[in-house]
Design goal:
- The protein is 77% helix and 0% strand.
- The chain has 95 residues and is mostly helical.
- The protein has two domains: 36 residues; 49 residues, no CATH class.
- α3 crosses α4.
Length: 95
Protein backbone atom coordinates (compact mmCIF):
# COMPACT_ATOMS: atom_id res chain seq x y z
CA UNK A 1 0.00 0.00 0.00
CA UNK A 2 2.84 2.41 0.87
CA UNK A 3 4.56 1.71 -2.46
CA UNK A 4 1.33 2.42 -4.31
CA UNK A 5 0.85 5.74 -2.43
CA UNK A 6 4.43 6.83 -3.10
CA UNK A 7 4.09 5.92 -6.78
CA UNK A 8 0.97 8.07 -7.09
CA UNK A 9 2.63 10.97 -5.23
CA UNK A 10 5.73 10.88 -7.45
CA UNK A 11 3.56 10.65 -10.57
CA UNK A 12 1.56 13.67 -9.49
CA UNK A 13 4.70 15.66 -8.68
CA UNK A 14 6.30 14.73 -12.00
CA UNK A 15 3.14 15.66 -13.91
CA UNK A 16 2.92 19.01 -12.13
CA UNK A 17 6.56 19.76 -12.91
CA UNK A 18 5.99 19.10 -16.59
CA UNK A 19 2.93 21.36 -16.68
CA UNK A 20 4.78 24.19 -14.93
CA UNK A 21 7.99 23.86 -16.96
CA UNK A 22 6.40 23.69 -20.41
CA UNK A 23 5.28 27.36 -20.61
CA UNK A 24 8.65 28.53 -19.26
CA UNK A 25 10.51 26.54 -21.91
CA UNK A 26 8.22 27.93 -24.59
CA UNK A 27 8.87 31.48 -23.39
CA UNK A 28 12.64 30.92 -23.39
CA UNK A 29 12.53 29.50 -26.89
CA UNK A 30 10.40 32.41 -28.07
CA UNK A 31 12.78 34.96 -26.55
CA UNK A 32 15.78 33.27 -28.14
CA UNK A 33 14.29 33.48 -31.63
CA UNK A 34 13.28 37.15 -31.52
CA UNK A 35 16.00 39.54 -32.56
CA UNK A 36 16.24 43.03 -31.10
CA UNK A 37 15.27 45.76 -33.52
CA UNK A 38 18.03 48.08 -34.60
CA UNK A 39 17.24 51.71 -34.14
CA UNK A 40 18.51 53.29 -37.33
CA UNK A 41 16.89 56.60 -36.46
CA UNK A 42 19.35 57.04 -33.58
CA UNK A 43 22.31 56.37 -35.87
CA UNK A 44 21.04 58.88 -38.41
CA UNK A 45 20.54 61.50 -35.69
CA UNK A 46 24.04 60.99 -34.31
CA UNK A 47 25.54 61.18 -37.80
CA UNK A 48 23.62 64.35 -38.54
CA UNK A 49 24.83 65.97 -35.30
CA UNK A 50 28.46 65.36 -36.20
CA UNK A 51 29.26 67.90 -38.90
CA UNK A 52 32.87 66.77 -39.22
CA UNK A 53 31.99 63.40 -40.70
CA UNK A 54 34.41 61.75 -38.26
CA UNK A 55 33.56 58.88 -35.97
CA UNK A 56 34.11 59.14 -32.24
CA UNK A 57 37.17 56.91 -32.47
CA UNK A 58 38.69 59.09 -35.19
CA UNK A 59 38.10 62.27 -33.14
CA UNK A 60 39.59 60.61 -30.04
CA UNK A 61 42.74 59.59 -31.95
CA UNK A 62 43.13 63.06 -33.45
CA UNK A 63 42.65 64.74 -30.07
CA UNK A 64 45.09 62.30 -28.50
CA UNK A 65 47.73 63.20 -31.06
CA UNK A 66 47.09 66.91 -30.50
CA UNK A 67 47.36 66.39 -26.72
CA UNK A 68 50.71 64.64 -27.07
CA UNK A 69 52.04 67.45 -29.28
CA UNK A 70 50.74 70.19 -26.98
CA UNK A 71 52.06 68.48 -23.88
CA UNK A 72 55.50 67.99 -25.43
CA UNK A 73 55.57 71.67 -26.42
CA UNK A 74 54.32 72.76 -22.98
CA UNK A 75 51.20 74.42 -24.42
CA UNK A 76 48.49 72.70 -22.38
CA UNK A 77 47.80 75.91 -20.41
CA UNK A 78 47.37 73.92 -17.20
CA UNK A 79 44.59 71.77 -18.68
CA UNK A 80 44.30 68.11 -17.85
CA UNK A 81 43.35 65.52 -20.48
CA UNK A 82 39.59 65.54 -19.78
CA UNK A 83 39.30 69.30 -20.26
CA UNK A 84 41.54 69.25 -23.32
CA UNK A 85 39.63 66.36 -24.86
CA UNK A 86 36.27 67.99 -24.22
CA UNK A 87 37.32 71.18 -25.99
CA UNK A 88 39.03 69.30 -28.82
CA UNK A 89 36.08 66.96 -29.37
CA UNK A 90 33.64 69.88 -29.45
CA UNK A 91 35.86 71.72 -31.90
CA UNK A 92 36.17 68.69 -34.19
CA UNK A 93 32.43 68.04 -34.09
CA UNK A 94 31.95 71.53 -35.43
CA UNK A 95 30.15 72.83 -32.34
Amino acid sequence: MLKHTLAIAFSAAFGAAIIVAAPAQHARAEMATTKPKKDSAKKETKAAEDKSGMTGAERRKKCSAEWKDAKAAGKTAGQKWPQFYSACNTRLKGG
